[in-house]
Amino acid sequence: MADETPKTTAPIPRTTRPLSEALLNEKWDRCASSFLIRSGLGLSFGVVFSVLLFKRRAWPAFVGLGFGAGRAWEECDNSFKRAAGPSKDGLRVIRP
Amino acid sequence: MLRASILRARPALRSIAPAARPQWRVAQRFYADEKKPGETAIPNPAPTVPPSNPTVSDGISKSSTVQTTSSSRTAPVEQPATTPPTGPGSASVAPDPVQAPKPKKKRRIRRFLFQLILLSTLGYAGGVYYSLVSDNFHDFFTEFVPFGEDAVGYFEEREFRKRFPGRAGQPRLHPQVSGENKVTIPGKSGLSSRPAEASGSDLAGKGPHVSAVKESKPVDPQTSAAGSASKGAQESKKEAGHKEKPTESSSHDLLPKGSSKAKAESKAATTPTATASTPITQLDHLSVPSASEPVVQDVVKIVNDIITAINADESHGNKYDSALNKAKSELSKVVADINLLKESTQKSAEEQIKAAHSEFDSAAKELVRRLDVQMHDQETHWKEEYENERERLSATYKEKLQSELDAAHNVYEQRLKNELIEQSIALQKAFSASVRKQVEQEREGRLGRLNELSSSVAELEKLTAEWNSVIEANLKTQHMVVAVESVKAALENQVVPKPFTGELAALKEIAADDPVVSAAIASINPAAYQRGIPNSAQLIDRFRRVAHEVRKAALLPEDAGVASHIASLAMSKVLFKKSGLAVGQDVEAILARTEVLLEEGDLDAAAREINGLQGWAKVLSKDWLSDARRVLEVRQALDVIGTEARLQSLLVD
């Protein structure tokens, strides 16, 4: 039996779909990373603008940060809301 | 040219009369617009006339203003006074005092006329053309415009010829082919109605008739009667009478009664006619109604001919009246004599006939009597003969009957003897057959025992064979049970989920087309045996992880955003945990119950509990639930197969 089992184990294609209990965690991860990236981008843009146009005032940098963070928040919110509904995976859809 | 002159005139006008400008401009514009050749082409010649007139008759005020304005100038003041209709126009258009007004006016009239003609021609041509195009306008044009019909007709004719060149030369009327003379029919020719004349005279005969009415009528039937009489000598007397009678009646009607002498047999009457000029009396024709003899008819005809001859002769002067009357009376006497003779002969003939009748009757009676006697004699004779014949016939028949009876008796006796012989033969045969049967029965009794023995041996063999099959089936079921057990063991003892396709294949092979086993295996989801299923310990372990995640999402509202997720995450940390078989439908209670059920090993109930989750909790626990379902399926299938194996082992006996 022990000899046979490695033979019989055919390379079954594992789906890349995450386990269902990890869905929420994955979303959190994505949200955090996007939050970081977008707020960083916004901040950098704000800094550049403040240097170039606004005589090194502080507020453009904060505004950029706010834009980035807001975008990330919105995206995250959207992803959570979209995933809330019961997924149609594996259900047969009967069309009239 | 005209416009040029106007244009030339304008600046001068403007400079000269600035005070009267508004009125001037009104008047001038009106006039100049009308005179433009581009615009004058549009209206009909009729409207072109008004422009000169309205300027005159528009109103007294306007003309007066024009006059007043023109009076302020020098030369043209007199012009409107001399010729009123063209006055204001000239005043407006020709302000130049240097130019001679008279030739200009003439030329203008000529020009106006020329334009008028041109316009009317154009209008006419346009009308003709449009009437060729539009039917509606065609009707209007031909009806109301003078010579419009001719013009349109001419063009239509041309078009027709162009379209049908073959008939181009022909006029539409029928042509006169050769030089034949024209036939003129006079007006009074032909039939004409006329009232019919009331012709009282129906003249049949020719010749002179003094009084056609009165003479012809008696003559006409008479001649016809005579003709018929001469023709039909063998005609019946009835017919003759019929022919003669009308003449009698007609003569009665026509002749005046006072002048005609009525006689009993013959109607010979001298008739003094009513002719006033001549005293000659017309003789009446003879008519003998009872003259049936052809000879008499002939005589009557002759006499009548004579009478007609005399009547025709007007100059006889009644000379033959007496002679003719005498002849008529004689003739009637002769006729009467003939009738008498006829009657006497008829009477004698009747008497003779009666005598012959009586004679014949007596003879017939005698004959009948004789016939009766003869018939009686013959009847008695025939009766005797009949009796004799009957007796003879009866005797012969009796003899025949006797002989036939004897023959039948003999035949019957012979048949009886034959039957007896046959019966004895049959009895002998039956005896021999029964003897043979007895012998054979004896023999078969022993053979039957031998057969019984052999059959019992065969039964024994069969029993042993069956027993063998029972053993085989038992072995088979044992194999099956072992295989099922091996599958179960493989599933339980795995560290990580492993595929168990090989075990299932072996089980199917052992089952060898058992429908229940194959159905049970088919009911397992292929993903289950291809990927493997977790055992109960793994399931519980995974459930713990899932429960942790589900607990985090336990407080989420519907359609939750980031904020609510964060809130739920934070608040779930401070929730009190439930344990045991908690009551309620909240997520915490469900999780606690599921855990207890899983620890008890009731996977089915646990799966049911988890299936009752809602929203995010359900989404998170979906994979675990499907895993649990697959495990349940496999377990159920294996249970079914094990039960089937046990059933098989029970069914063997």
Automatic annotation (TrEMBL), chain A:
<keyword id="KW-0812">Transmembrane</keyword>
<keyword id="KW-0472">Membrane</keyword>
<keyword id="KW-1133">Transmembrane helix</keyword>
<dbReference type="Pfam" id="PF04418">
    <property type="entry name" value="DUF543"/>
</dbReference>
<feature type="transmembrane region" description="Helical">
    <location>
        <begin position="35"/>
        <end position="54"/>
    </location>
</feature>
<comment type="similarity">
    <text>Belongs to the MICOS complex subunit Mic10 family.</text>
</comment>
<comment type="function">
    <text>Component of the MICOS complex, a large protein complex of the mitochondrial inner membrane that plays crucial roles in the maintenance of crista junctions, inner membrane architecture, and formation of contact sites to the outer membrane.</text>
</comment>
<keyword id="KW-0999">Mitochondrion inner membrane</keyword>
<dbReference type="InterPro" id="IPR007512">
    <property type="entry name" value="Mic10"/>
</dbReference>
<keyword id="KW-0496">Mitochondrion</keyword>
<protein>
    <recommendedName>
        <fullName>MICOS complex subunit MIC10</fullName>
    </recommendedName>
</protein>
<dbReference type="GO" id="GO:0061617">
    <property type="term" value="C:MICOS complex"/>
</dbReference>
<comment type="subunit">
    <text>Component of the mitochondrial contact site and cristae organizing system (MICOS) complex.</text>
</comment>
UniProtKB/TrEMBL annotation, chain B:
<comment type="subunit">
    <text>Component of the mitochondrial contact site and cristae organizing system (MICOS) complex.</text>
</comment>
<protein>
    <recommendedName>
        <fullName>MICOS complex subunit MIC60</fullName>
    </recommendedName>
</protein>
<keyword id="KW-0496">Mitochondrion</keyword>
<comment type="function">
    <text>Component of the MICOS complex, a large protein complex of the mitochondrial inner membrane that plays crucial roles in the maintenance of crista junctions, inner membrane architecture, and formation of contact sites to the outer membrane. Plays a role in keeping cristae membranes connected to the inner boundary membrane. Also promotes protein import via the mitochondrial intermembrane space assembly (MIA) pathway.</text>
</comment>
<feature type="coiled-coil region">
    <location>
        <begin position="324"/>
        <end position="403"/>
    </location>
</feature>
<keyword id="KW-0472">Membrane</keyword>
<dbReference type="Pfam" id="PF09731">
    <property type="entry name" value="Mitofilin"/>
</dbReference>
<dbReference type="InterPro" id="IPR019133">
    <property type="entry name" value="MIC60"/>
</dbReference>
<feature type="region of interest" description="Disordered">
    <location>
        <begin position="31"/>
        <end position="105"/>
    </location>
</feature>
<keyword id="KW-0175">Coiled coil</keyword>
<keyword id="KW-0812">Transmembrane</keyword>
<dbReference type="GO" id="GO:0042407">
    <property type="term" value="P:cristae formation"/>
</dbReference>
<dbReference type="GO" id="GO:0061617">
    <property type="term" value="C:MICOS complex"/>
</dbReference>
<feature type="compositionally biased region" description="Pro residues">
    <location>
        <begin position="44"/>
        <end position="53"/>
    </location>
</feature>
<feature type="compositionally biased region" description="Polar residues">
    <location>
        <begin position="221"/>
        <end position="233"/>
    </location>
</feature>
<feature type="region of interest" description="Disordered">
    <location>
        <begin position="165"/>
        <end position="281"/>
    </location>
</feature>
<comment type="similarity">
    <text>Belongs to the MICOS complex subunit Mic60 family.</text>
</comment>
<keyword id="KW-0999">Mitochondrion inner membrane</keyword>
<feature type="compositionally biased region" description="Low complexity">
    <location>
        <begin position="54"/>
        <end position="74"/>
    </location>
</feature>
<keyword id="KW-1133">Transmembrane helix</keyword>
<feature type="transmembrane region" description="Helical">
    <location>
        <begin position="112"/>
        <end position="132"/>
    </location>
</feature>
<feature type="compositionally biased region" description="Low complexity">
    <location>
        <begin position="256"/>
        <end position="281"/>
    </location>
</feature>
